[in-house]
Amino acid sequence: HYGGLYSLAIRQGAFAIVGCFLAWNVALMPISRIRTLTPIFMAGCVVALGAVLVIGSSVNGQRNWIDFGGPFRLQPSEFAKLGVILWGARVLANKYHLIEQTLELTVPLIPMYGLVLALILAEGDLGTAMVMTPIMAAPLWLVGAPKKWFKWGGIVGLLAIAGFTLAHPYRMQRFASFLRPNQDLGGINFQVHQGLWALGTGGWSGLGPGASRQKWGSLPEAHTDFIYAVLGEEMGLIGTILVLVLF
Asked: Are 92 and 85 a contacting pair, CB within 8 Å?
């Protein structure tokens, strides 16, 4: 299905090598250099998020990828998570002596946050938008923004989530499946049921590395979203607890 027995391992290995190389270089980079590059990086994230709406490809019903051919795809919203952290920190650090003033605290931070969220929601990716919101709120919390902002922001956010959920039947199905996980096991709850089955059959010590049976067609997205279930089947409860300890 993926082109070869080791195709996924090779791809992940390549990503790991590139990631280690970039991490090493960023770790050695002076803070001043990071400050200089941050606005460029943030601008690139915004442009990439906009490009998804024009040339993006759809995966599992969500158009949030840019496809470069073969196994190489880029999800700009993942880079945007880092972008808003760096850019928000830079803006607030530069304005630290002015953050008692509401206008200085909110502009240009809030408009940029709003633009990023709007682009992500335009892609149909409500999940990433929900993850992005607390990431954006964290810098404001750390510099002492008024607590009422977070209270009213939370209320507005919950209402927005409810509205986006009601507007799309598949999101309503997911919410219903969350409330009734033991129903429709061949339909909306199929993936969750197969994941639980994998975890359960792993027992204490698991079936052994590579011995998972659920990953061979029964469990969708076995190498991404549900890799933890595969780990539980192969390494058992001990292995899954070890992963949590490592985190």
From this structure: no
| pLDDT value of residue 29 | 95
List, in order, residues 6 or more apart from 209 with CB less than 8 Å away: 234, 235
Contact status, residue 91 vs residue 83, Cβ threshold 8 Å: no
Residues 241 and 23: their CA atoms lie apart, in Å, by: 27
Q: Please state, in angstroms and as integers, the Cα–Cα distance from residue 219 to each residue in 8, 16, 196, following that order.
A: 16, 25, 10
Each residue's pLDDT tens digit, 125-161: 888 999 999 999 999 999 999 999 999 999 999 999 9
- Rounded to the nearest 10°, the torsion over CA 180, 186, 191, 194 is 100
| 18 SS3 class | helix
User: How far is residue 22's CA from residue 16's CA, in Å, rounded to a whole number?
Assistant: 10
Per-residue pLDDT tens for 59-112? Answer: 766 778 888 876 678 899 999 999 999 999 999 999 989 988 999 999 999 999
> Rg of the chain's alpha carbons, rounded to an integer?
21
Is the Cα torsion angle 75, 128, 103, 141 positive or negative in sign? negative
Rounded to the nearest 5°, which phi and psi values hold at 185? -70, -20
85-90 long-range contacts, CB within 8 A, separation 24+: 85/135, 85/138, 85/139, 86/34, 86/38, 86/41, 86/42, 87/38, 87/39, 87/41, 87/42, 87/112, 88/113, 88/136, 88/139, 88/140, 89/139, 90/35, 90/38, 90/39
